[in-house]
Predict the 3D structure of the following.
Amino acid sequence: MSICAIVGVNWGDEGKGRMVDLLAQQYDIVVRYQGGSNAGHTVINQYGKFALNLMPSGIFRPEVVNILGNGTVIDLEHLCGEIDGLQAAGIEVSPDRLKISNRAIIVFPFHKEQDGLEEARLKDARYGSTKRGIAPVYSDKYQKKGIQLGDLLLPDLFEKRLKALLEWKNLTLTGVYGAKAHSFQQTMDWVERFGSRLKPYICDTGKYLYEAQGQGRSILFEAQLGALRDLELGIYPFTSSSAPLAAYAPLGAGVPGLRVERVVGVVKAYSTCVGEGPFVAEWQGGEAERLREAGGEYGAATGRPRRVGPFDLVATRYGVRLQGATDIALTKMDVLSYMDRIPVCTAYRLAGGQVTEEFPFTPLMDGAEPVIEYLPGWKQDISKARSFAALPKEAQDYVRYIEARLDCPVTYVSVGPGRDEIIYR
Ligand code: GDP
């Protein structure tokens, strides 16, 4: 399958980066098509341990070309920092190996500031933003105020657009939040420092991809976040401001006519959620602590403790549907090894008492409770298993149960964070 997307089925943090790092060897090009530096894709391989925020996870494969598509938003400073970190670890990042769309939108320091100011203003009603400027910059994009990376190559136009953007943005920063205005010079200094370094990477990536697929080169799309954070169909307003769905990949990459043939939905063997919003199966107290510790569930981008709970069939079935997943990569199976029995949320009992297996409209999840079923645990280390047959029967049964209930085959079972800690089925 030469056009594939690796996407998150749940709230994010399912282990997409780990799967892209693994599967990138079969592809010529890896493309991030949405989001910005709010992603945190953890990759562990022979070079070390990395938390990639913007950089596509194919960067560790020397033969792979990595692309940041037009659907992404790019903090120039942050990307330069990531390039430096990778180069310090011996990974070559050059314009041959990384291409940035001239249509991607720039995240400026004032976007990050606005993000933080708005979260502070909201207090207890905050969204749980990563404060990387994502909501403000996508809002600007849709208001047609954004500045594209390609504008950096046209200095006169760039300065004109930046002046206009600052004039408008400072009205919000000073008027709404009582913050200091950002000066043109201060912002230009930042652009000179980081933007000039990135200029050689900027090109028409849509054209590049269109021609590449015409030549039969294979493409792997890498999503950020998960289906439930999709702006249109997720748990709005507790979503991200972009579209992490596989269906958006061709558009966010600049090749809208491309058909994604294979969609690998990454699903964690239990549930986690960073940030606010409904999370019906959430655990509290000691049970949650134990799972959080066992799974190391602290955000890669922010270090925040993740909310945790059992596998949620209701949410996951919805996520599989949104993603149009053709198969599933089930990650972190090894983390469940400590449990005597494995809990699974099979339905939600809504506040009015109605029990449903359908993922509800967001506000209807207020006060909902999970209906839990238990499967037998396996109570042994499975991290060394490299074939399905080598898994204990209870672990095999858990995988079979999940694929039957999701009506989607589980083709990868991940039993550890390392590149090779995987079972192919
Ligand atoms: P992503 O944003 O979807 O790439 O996921 P994150 O990187 O935020 O979170 C996944 C975390 O789980 C990372 O720390 C990975 O190293 C780790 N991980 C991935 N797969 C496995 C697995 O099968 N077992 C264990 N124990 N850890 C895993």
